[in-house]
Amino acid sequence: MSRLTHTGAASGPYAPPVPARELTAVSADGARLHVEVHGPENAPAVVLAHGWTCSTAFWAAQIRDLAADHRVIAYDQRGHGRSPASALCSTEALADDLEAVLAATLAPGEKAVLVGHSMGGMALMATAGRPRFKEHAAAALLCSTASSGLVAEARVVPLGAGRLRTWLTGRILRAPVPRWAPSRRWRCASSSTGPWEPVRPRSWSRRARGSCTPVRGRCGTPGRGCSVCSISTTAYGS
């Protein structure tokens, strides 16, 4: 059971559903990734890659709906949820992780719709040029993500565009978020979803961010522009 399950919603749309099975995928550098599989085993596959400071529980509502007639594969990024922290945390490492998950859960040549939110979208784009991505990706959905310029364009700090906002955003996105002290609540909300986040999801997402290990601050921004997907791709809220 994930750390988030202990602190997250016990019922309702934000309650993490119970997976049909769980497994561990091993990335290129030996990082171990917690993977969950939901829904019918032989149904069309959907792979969900969550964003910075989240976990598989981020997808609770989507998993619950999709798993009725899809095999839904969700995994915790390194240093998030039930996946231990790793000394290496970069866009390329996240691409290695996604490849490992695809190899562990899909049969050779099996296609899936790949969905990436925020940092998960960066992982998808970084993997797009690799053979395993081309082998398994039927289509991609990119949600609230970016391929470059994240620090300059992000609006988590309520200031106009410029050097000060870029500097503050960079400090927030790269810094590990400590356990919850009331004085840090605004920083925690702003660093992941923005200060306009609705109250109920904000309460859940604070707990989600609290389940992360401090090292995950290194994964906050991509080191460079990511590859562009050459398959059918939809970008939402970017």
In short:
The chain is built from nine helices and seven strands; from the N terminus they run H-E-E-E-H-E-H-E-H-H-E-H-H-H-H-E. It is α/β, with parallel strands linked by helices and 238 residues long.
Number of domains: 1
Biggest sheet, open or closed, and with what strands and sense? 7 strands, mixed
User: Would you identify the CATH H-level superfamily?
Assistant: Alpha/Beta hydrolase fold, catalytic domain
Q: List how many beta strands DSSP finds.
A: 7
Query: What order do the strands of the largest sheet run in, or round the barrel if closed?
Result: 1-2-4-3-5-6-7
Using only C-alpha atoms, the radius of gyration works out to: 17 Å
Q: Provide the helix percentage.
A: 25-40%
Unreliable residue runs: 1-8, 178-193, 214-218, 220-226
Overall average residue pLDDT = 78
Q: What does this protein structure show overall?
A:
It is a single chain. This protein is of the alpha/beta class and 238 residues long. It has a single domain, classed as Rossmann fold (3-Layer(aba) Sandwich), CATH 3.40.50.1820. The protein is 33% helix and 17% strand. The chain has nine helices and seven strands. It has helices at residues 3-7, 60-66, 91-105, 119-127, 131-136, 150-153, 163-174, 185-192, 199-210; strands spanning 21-26, 32-38, 45-49, 71-75, 112-117, 137-143, 232-236. Strands 1-2-4-3-5-6-7 form a seven-stranded mixed β-sheet. Helix 2 (60-66) links the parallel strand 3 (45-49) and strand 4 (71-75). Helix 3 (91-105) packs across helix 4 (119-127). It is globular. 44% of the residues are buried. Residues 1-8, 178-193, 214-218 and 220-226 have low confidence and may be disordered.
